[in-house]
Amino acid sequence: MAVAPNRRKHLVHSNILSNVEAGSKLYTDEFTSYSDLPPEFVHELVNHLQYYVSGRVHTNGMENFWSLLKRTLKGTYVSVDPAHLQAYVDEQAFRFNSRKTMDDGERFRAVISQIIGKRVTYAELIGKEGETEGVA
């Protein structure tokens, strides 16, 4: 998952080309930025005005992820600074991707094992690294 500045077609296509292996099947909804994807991808879509599933083609898993992310941002964290949005997305992606392979304790131990010896300064934490205003 990556936070993008907008949903315009050129950016969506660029992200797909940079991050998705050629030959992959892409299942999307009818959002116009997904139209005319490069031919190295197999693109199938569902038109939610007509149906939500067509055989194996659906976006239910992705919609489940977005629902959980939005609920976390609005209900748990309440106010998220845009400078930190990618970190919140990364956290939710980790939770979602490990939901069937780890229980809460295993997930906690995995996270803790990755932070040992790492330091975050206050300036980094508030997204103001490199700024020296007010420093004596």
- Which overall shape is indicated by the principal axes computed on the Cα atoms? globular
Low-confidence stretches: none
Number of strands: 4
Characterize the main sheet: 2 strands, parallel
Rounded to the nearest angstrom, the radius of gyration is 19 Å
Order of helices and strands: HEEEEHHHH
Please give the domain count: 2
Strand order of the largest sheet: 1-2
Please outline what is shown here.
With 136 residues, this protein is mostly helical. It has helices at 9-19, 60-77, 85-97, 104-115, 122-125; strands at residues 25-29, 42-46, 53-54, 57-58.
Description:
It is a single chain. The protein is mainly alpha-helical and 136 residues long. It folds into 2 domains: 52 residues, no CATH class; 78 residues, no CATH class. 43% of the residues lie in helices and 10% in strands. It has 5 helices and 4 strands. The strands form 2 sheets. It has a two-stranded parallel ribbon.
